[in-house]
Amino acid sequence: MALLITDKLGESGDAKTTDVAQCEIMAVKGLPGMMSQDSLYQDIFKGSEKVEILGKLPSLLWAYSEASRKYVQELTSKPNDQPESLDRVQKLLGILDSAADHLGNEDLKNRLAQHIKIIAQIQAGHLRAEEFETAFLPEVTKMEQLAGPRRDSSPDALLEKAMLDRELDKAERIKTGRSADIVVSVDILEDVRNYLSQEVMTEGISSVLVIDSAGSLICNVGHKIDLDVVSLAAVAAANFAATEQIARLIGETDFVLLFYKGHNESFHFLRVGAEYIIVTIFNNQLSLGLLRLKIAEVAQVLEKKLPKREV
């Protein structure tokens, strides 16, 4: 695959052809008019609702902006060295392109195409660091305007960082040919659903969800029909990931159990092995102690029933 790049430094103005591999931007395949539509990260949002992707987009854009500005800084301060931030820029471009595909956002795809074109020019040696900075930073500023207000100082910032870490981990799995998501067969799914219905769904429990650590819903049983289970799965996984940051502050690796008490109903979250989380919604008439004992037993059973992530 070749990429057509205009040599801005040449006097003739002739276009030169540079191999994509030489530009070291294989992580962003699929940008319109630039590379193959067989995007390296095309499956990263597979199965995601548009509202979920839209919720992640501002954080992804700000993360890309931060990585891009660091990339420019490294290029200008050490022009002869390979910038360490390039890999992160590539991954985030790939993730954003996948998001734009799933959202049908042609404006975002066109903006990303402009970014990759400029990056390709500097990587191919067709731009000096100062010229790259002049051309690239205004485009980064446009991305920041698209992202909206930054939330670094808000209580949601930790959740957003956890979400970003998960997306980058999924991107790395896809890049290295590993599965980004756990594949659960129909037989296992039915077995788990039947088990939960028979052993867990007692009076006082309205819903039980099994999700994976990436925020994908595995199965849901219960009678709380107005529950947005897709959003709950994503938020629950992000919440667990965020508490890992808190756990490290006190010397723990992570927390295996979380509990949120409401006025009428409460949430109980328990990690099942390294890959899954079981979420239980129950009313406050149910004994928390009994629930914890029951769910602990259920977690041991589910850990044996559910498949492990491919490594």
From TrEMBL:
Signal peptide: none
Lineage top rank: taxon: Bacteria
InterPro entries: LAMTOR2-like, Roadblock/LAMTOR2_dom
Organism: Desulfomonile tiedjei
A single MF term (Gene Ontology): molecular adaptor activity
Sequence ranges assigned to domain Roadblock/LAMTOR2 in this UniProt record: 192-282
Protein name: Roadblock/LC7 domain-containing protein
PANTHER family (alphabetical): LATE ENDOSOMAL/LYSOSOMAL MP1 INTERACTING PROTEIN (PTHR13323)
GO biological process: positive regulation of TOR signaling
Pfam families assigned: Robl_LC7
